[in-house]
Amino acid sequence: MGKKSRVKTQKSGSGASAVVSPKEMMNLVSELLQKCSSAAPSAGKEWEEYIQIRALVEKIRKKQKGMSVVFEGSREDYFSDLMCWAQYSGASCDSFTVANFGKEGYGLRATREIKAEELFLWIPRKMLMTVESAQNSVLGPLYSQDRILQAMGNVTLALHLLCERAIPSSPWQPYIRTLPQDYDTPLYYQQDEVRHLLGTQAVQDVLSQYKNTARQYAYFYKLIQTHPAASKLPLKDSFTFDDYRWAVSSVMTRQNQIPTEDGSRVTLALIPLWDMCNHTSGLITTGYNLEDDRCECVALQDYKENEQIYIFYGTRSNAEFVIHNGFFFQDNAHDRVKIKLGISKSERLYAMKAEVLARAGIPASSIFALHCNEPPISAQLLAFLRVFCMTEEELKDYLLGERAINKIFTLGNSEFPVSWENEIKLWTFLETRAALLLKTYKTTSEEDRSMLEKPDLSLHSRVAIQLRLAEKQILEKASASGRAKRLHFQKKLEEGAPLPRYEESDIALLENADSDAKLPIILRKLEEVEEGQEIQVDEHSGLLNGGKAVYGTDISPPVEANEDSGPVQEETKFSTSTGESSVKCYLKCY
């Protein structure tokens, strides 16, 4: 298996701080927990709260300097151990090797020609770190008594990872030693680097992620120090914020969902070796083979010897990539900007609009998305905006008029407007809303491009500015598209063009159409809906994409469920047990 595991805890030297008394550390951690558990700040005060939380965290980090468990050498020193362990455990290792690809970091390099759709990689269950393996580990006694761990699989995985890292004899040591020593998630950004995101649509998710992580750390620090079931944990003598940040980022960038051993439900897992693959555009090519009880991956495309092997992480926005994976993906065809919309309850027509939306399966208040491609809005958002802009007479027509039920099916179909006036209103609204959102940014697109040309820009600052610019470009396109559509429908109105009418047979055509825009709203899931809102994704439509890929029970790409599903949502959203709702308001996810 190569070199022996070399683990050490830096408690002195190497810049270590003077010994901190347990009471002093407990007081600091308690203060952090109280600060992170207080009521949400008022609008516009989120940055101020972030600075206060960060100051407390930095004070704790300073006291804990030199106390983390670390490995000697670099991760590259242990790749040979990883390959030997994988081969010994029954994984496939004859088609690739681990290699350094410069700016992309480490990845898998083909050692032979691999054909598209060829099964080239499989990882047996016994190599995986899962919530189930955590229950059977040294963490098990605490897991069985703590409802937070039971409800939040991602947190369980993070603590499982830390415990096994601190145990030299852990069977997962060959894997853990090859994980990065740090990450490029916003949890590792300097305060000035986070500042670049102020005014963006993503900044709230970044600030929430930091707050949630700090709150989790404080909670589990106190739990580990005081709970009887934690008395034998290897973390009791050394559990630093940097340790937890590392574990959270390791899980956040790598976790996936796989079926449990009996196949009755799903569980979260870290998948050694396979998680070395980098992302590119394409389709999901990874699945779980229940019969052979292993994760399997087929090639996304043809690969020649020495070429890098890529996989597709899923249809994530760049905000999701940056926040949950730590990188910005250029030319992301799935990039989008979240936009929160809702019908005001004080509006005179609220009840009628809410009823029409309910019949279409859309909540009266939700989070949608503006997309980087045409059309900039989905069928769901089109339907929402049409209802949002309806007059009282139009609402009555969709509630009580002839064939009212069938008309609901056409709300998200661009071919059947409610009226020319309604189309003009909704596209005017989109044009204006996107333009207003652009004004909230502190810099222009031109200024962002100029900043990106600076050679001394830090990696994190560059990624933050790239994300900021990408958001603006999406909003600019949405505003321009809204204006073009508005002018188009104004012309239709001025010309007195007849309004397209659907026939009864059109309903069947809509149901069988391939185009997203032609699907009946009530037959589709809302991709943009966040976890915990009124519309829930059918859990059987496909397994959620945690770290890299959506899993099915075969190789063919399953129907993908949107995370936050992400690594949708916002804090990162992960599927958990039904008990999560009772505790999520306290700790939340990363």
Detail the topology: elements first, then pairings:
Blueprint: E1 7-9, H1 22-37, H2 46-63, E2 69-71, H3 79-88, E3 96-100, E4 106-110, E5 119-124, E6 129-130, H4 131-135, H5 140-143, H6 147-151, H7 153-165, H8 173-176, H9 191-195, H10 203-226, H11 241-254, E7 256-259, E8 266-270, E9 278-279, E10 286-289, E11 294-298, E12 308-311, H12 318-325, E13 336-342, H13 350-359, E14 365-371, H14 379-388, H15 392-399, H16 404-408, H17 420-438, H18 445-452, H19 459-495, H20 504-512
- List segments where confidence is low: pLDDT < 50 over at least 5 consecutive residues: 1-7, 9-17, 507-590
Radius of gyration: 26 Å
CATH H-level superfamily of one domain:
set domain protein methyltransferase, domain 1
Proportion of helical residues: 25-40%
Number of alpha- plus pi-helical segments = 20
Largest sheet composition: 4 strands, mixed
Pfam families: Rubis-subs-bind, SET
Protein name: protein-histidine N-methyltransferase
Catalytic activity: L-histidyl-[protein] + S-adenosyl-L-methionine = N(tele)-methyl-L-histidyl-[protein] + S-adenosyl-L-homocysteine + H(+)
GO molecular function: actin binding; protein-L-histidine N-tele-methyltransferase activity; protein-lysine N-methyltransferase activity
Q: How would you describe what is shown here?
A:
46% of the residues are buried. The strands form five sheets. This protein has a four-stranded mixed β-sheet with strand order 3-4-12-9, with no helix packed on it. β10 (286-289) and β11 (294-298) form a beta hairpin. The protein is an alpha+beta fold. α1 packs across α10 (203-226) and α10 packs across α11 (241-254). It is globular, with a radius of gyration of 26 Å. The protein has helices spanning 22-37, 46-63, 79-88, 131-135, 140-143, 147-151, 153-165, 173-176, 191-195, 203-226, 241-254, 318-325, 350-359, 379-388, 392-399, 404-408, 420-438, 445-452, 459-495, 504-512, and strands at 7-9, 69-71, 96-100, 106-110, 119-124, 129-130, 256-259, 266-270, 278-279, 286-289, 294-298, 308-311, 336-342, 365-371. The chain is built from 20 helices and 14 strands. The longest helix is centred in the last third of the chain and has 37 residues, at 459-495.
